[in-house]
Amino acid sequence: MKKRILIGLCAVLLLTSCAHEYNQVYKTTNNDYKYEFAKECFAKGKYGFAVPLLQDLVTIEKGTDNAQECLYMLAMAEYCLKDYQAASETFKKYYQTYPRGQYAEMASFYIGQSLFEGTPEPRLDQTPTVAAIAAFQEYLDIFPNGKMKETAQQRLFALQDKLVRKEYLNAKLYYNLGSYFGNSIRTVDNNGGNNYEACIITAQNALNDYPYSDLREDFAILIMKSKFELAQMSVEEKKVQRFQDAEDECYGFINEYPDSKERKTAEDYIKKCKQYTKD
């Protein structure tokens, strides 16, 4: 017990000592000393101490040989503190200020990497994901043989998968809503569509935009099911046309995914469709 208390007291004294030294450095007018201390804090992973010092030094050292390093270290410290929004802006500032600078390539990469770390889950708005894709694409365009090329490409694939997942969740939501919101048969055919039509359009657009997605079969299932449901709820004069469309979709699905878990569903749909499409 005494040993634990002694260790605790030593830790408190050490932190107090560090804080006191930091306050002295922060207030000093000796910029060289402040610069060296900030570098030491950064090297030791004390990013919380390094950031305020570097924020001062970015202005103080502007136009000097230390300016580039100060700005890049600030961006990296913010990144390590998981302040990804601030980090992306600082990396962008570095690259715009020093496009041929010592850290230009890494700054360009970390603009995208910072945005990547801050992207939300697929259910949420994907504006940050689109921004991250644009940043990584810009890195690859400017540095086609860059040292981070492989990582940037992997990030792009991961981000695109997130966008595909978002589109799948949107399409599935439309399908689950079905004729909800009071869409009667007359409303469906006279006022331009319902949730099944929205599901079909969303899924088809996703397949066109992301033809190599791992969710391709899942989108196809939603399209097939939505076309059948849409045919069932149509007015009589449109049933034959829509059941024919649904039947064709089912045959196409079976041809493309003969071993699908939904093959039986497609075969059942075909039988029901033929009640309307047979001559």
Explain briefly what this protein structure is:
The protein has 279 residues and is mainly alpha-helical. The chain has 13 helices and no strands.
Question: Main beta sheet, described?
Answer: none
Helix and strand string, N-terminal first?
A: HHHHHHHHHHHHH
Total number of β-strand segments? 0
Binned strand content? under 5%
Could you report the average pLDDT, rounded to the nearest whole number? 88
What portion of residues is helical? over 70%
Main structural class:
mainly alpha
Q: Indicate the radius of gyration in whole angstroms.
A: 29 Å
Residue runs with pLDDT of under 50 for 5 or more positions = 2-18, 182-187
Taken from the alpha-carbon principal axes, the silhouette is elongated
Ends: how far apart?
Answer: 91 Å
Tally of contiguous helical segments: 13
